[in-house]
């Protein structure tokens, strides 16, 4: 145990040094991949980490996410990187976890409790007969009071400007004192760089020092994926019971409570099916068959934009309603077959509703072009289809809510990695320029995208001007600005990229910046 603690603390120290070297005044790119390789190696060498299939899957997933940062270097790839890192750490140190949500939460908890984990490991460090345990017994007593004092100092500073002034003056003097000492000892090393190393040490320690309390893992082990009929003790009251009794009165105490819930479900799903049938009929007539395109009184833009948001929310709410009614013993009630049929019909109708969302978004893209938000609508509609499919499995196979979280969490994470492989910014710019004759080009939006789009924008300078939408029955018109404005804006963007590219080293290398630099003939000295 002592040797293990020594190795882990030494690995955290080396990781802090590596962190400072890789990320100081650099962009996130190749340095993230190098840092991830270091973390994976250290975690693999940790004897407490079981190298099972789950460790390999999420380790490879994180490595893929780090490579995608180097290849695509987008905001989405960074999200997938941090998400995969948290899942890898969570599953590595808690091998019995089954859901990505709990793995993510335990990894965050491990990061937050870095000071406790460090103190615990330092107290086990020994060099010969010397150990630090007596020292950290004292630290243990003062750590919590210090944290409490810091929290209340922040609160009192927010409440009183005078108190905040004195607190700021006090902290500034302390900072100057340590900065003078640090500058005297290390003349060639800045205080900011030292603090950056400390931050890296804290981050690395949080990633490789496991949280010693496994209670969350034990709690999740109690959750089941298969539903079983439970005979409830009516004398034992739960929080959920007390909440629902406000709306149901004494129905819950009666033997006919399950039958009452069945009747309530039949009425609810019957009415909802009729309501959704009416809405789907309208959508099929106006959207699927294209009759709505010829309505002069229809504000097509508002129909597409506002209607899509409402439909997506309704689909998510539909899944919540289904989960509510099939949360318990109603799954095993012999007379619930009709309710299940109505539920399946409502699921099919919601699929039709999702198809309408796809059509609405497709019309919007047809007339206005691609944007991140319109792509996001398509992605969310896809997630709704997946959600409905898993909800169907829950009802048909009598699964639990935990099963839904487990399956959907894994699918969402896999889709996040898949979508990170696509260079969305370049795809958007190329699509909009390719369909410039039929869509409303928004040059302000296109120029606002990332630097990786600069070569495509430069190649299509003549198309970089605002145009009006070709959509029927649109009342709004976009003012067309002079083309020279956009040319100057593009030139400024190119100039900013050149300045930024020259400031960073090979640690910030990524394929997209390299490709843009090659296009503009930039060669680093």
Polypeptide structure, described:
The protein is an all-alpha fold and 525 residues long. The chain has three domains: 2-219, no CATH class; 269-399; 424-519, no CATH class. It is 71% helix and 1% strand. The protein has helices spanning 2-23, 30-45, 53-71, 75-93, 100-112, 114-122, 133-159, 161-185, 191-208, 215-221, 239-248, 257-288, 300-325, 337-368, 372-397, 401-420, 424-434, 443-447, 454-459, 483-503, 511-519, and strands at 126-127, 130-131. The protein has a two-stranded antiparallel sheet with strand order 1-2. It is globular. The mean pLDDT is 82.
What is the SS-derived class?
mainly alpha
Q: How large is the share of residues in beta strands?
A: under 5%
The coarse overall form would be globular
User: Average pLDDT across residues?
Assistant: 82
Helix-strand pattern: HHHHHHEEHHHHHHHHHHHHHHH
| Uncertain residue segments | none
How many separate domains make up the residues?
A: 3
How many distinct beta strands? 2
How many helices? The count is 21
- Report strand order across the widest sheet: 1-2
Oligomer: single chain
Overall helicity: over 70%
Q: Main sheet, how many strands, which sense, barrel?
A: 2 strands, antiparallel
Query: How far is it from the N-terminal to the C-terminal residue, by CA?
Result: 50 Å
Radius of gyration: 29 Å
């Amino acid at each position: 145990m002592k040797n293990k603690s020594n190795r882990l603390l030494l690995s955290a120290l080396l990781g802090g040094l590596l962190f400072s070297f890789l990320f100081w005044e650099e962009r996130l790119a190749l340095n993230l991949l190098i840092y991830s390789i270091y973390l994976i190696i250290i975690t693999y060498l940790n004897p407490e980490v079981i190298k099972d299939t789950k460790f390999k899957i999420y380790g490879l997933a994180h490595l893929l996410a780090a490579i995608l940062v180097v290849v695509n270097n987008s905001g989405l790839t960074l999200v997938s990187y941090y998400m995969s890192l948290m899942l890898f750490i969570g599953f590595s140190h808690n091998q019995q976890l089954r859901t990505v949500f709990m793995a993510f939460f335990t990894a965050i908890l491990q990061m937050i409790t870095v000071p406790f984990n460090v103190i615990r490991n330092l107290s086990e460090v020994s060099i010969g007969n010397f150990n630090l345990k007596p020292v950290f017994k004292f630290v243990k007593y003062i750590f919590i009071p210090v944290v409490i004092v810091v929290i209340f100092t922040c609160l009192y500073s927010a409440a009183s400007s005078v108190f905040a002034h004195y607190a700021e003056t006090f902290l500034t003097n302390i900072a100057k004192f340590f900065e003078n000492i640090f500058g005297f000892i290390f003349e060639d090393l800045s205080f900011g760089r030292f603090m950056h190393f400390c931050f890296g040490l804290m981050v690395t320690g949080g990633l490789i020092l496991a949280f010693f309390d496994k209670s969350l893992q034990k709690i999740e082990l109690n959750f089941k994926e298969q539903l079983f009929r439970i005979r409830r003790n009516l004398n034992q009251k739960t929080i959920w019971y007390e909440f629902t009794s406000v709306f149901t009165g004494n129905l819950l105490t009666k033997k006919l409570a399950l039958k009452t819930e069945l009747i309530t479900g039949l009425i609810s799903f019957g009415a909802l099916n009729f309501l959704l049938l009416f809405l789907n009929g309208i959508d099929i007539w106006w959207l699927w068959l294209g009759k709505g395109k010829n309505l002069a009184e229809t504000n097509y833009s508002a129909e597409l934009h506002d209607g899509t948001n409402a439909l997506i929310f309704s689909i998510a709410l539909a899944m919540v309603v289904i989960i509510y009614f099939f949360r318990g013993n109603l799954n095993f009630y012999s007379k619930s077959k009709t309710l299940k049929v109505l539920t399946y019909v409502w699921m099919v109708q919601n699929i039709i509703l999702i198809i309408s969302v796809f059509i609405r978004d497709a019309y919007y893209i047809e007339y206005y072009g691609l944007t991140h938000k319109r792509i996001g609508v398509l992605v969310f509609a896809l997630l709704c289809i997946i959600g409905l499919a898993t909800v169907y499995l829950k009802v048909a196979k009598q699964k639990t809510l935990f099963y839904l979280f487990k399956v959907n969490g894994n699918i969402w994470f896999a889709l996040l990695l898949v979508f990170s492989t696509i260079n969305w910014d370049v795809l958007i710019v190329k699509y909009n320029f390719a369909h410039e004759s039929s869509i409303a080009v928004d040059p302000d939006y296109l120029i606002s995208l990332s630097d990786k789009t600069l070569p495509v924008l430069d190649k299509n300078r003549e198309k970089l001007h605002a145009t009006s939408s070709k959509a029927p029955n649109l009342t709004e018109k976009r003012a067309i600005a002079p083309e020279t404005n956009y040319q100057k804006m593009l030139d400024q963007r190119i100039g900013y990229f050149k300045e930024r590219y020259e400031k960073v080293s090979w640690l910030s290398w990524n394929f997209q910046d390299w490709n843009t630099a090659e296009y503009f003939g930039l060669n680093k000295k």
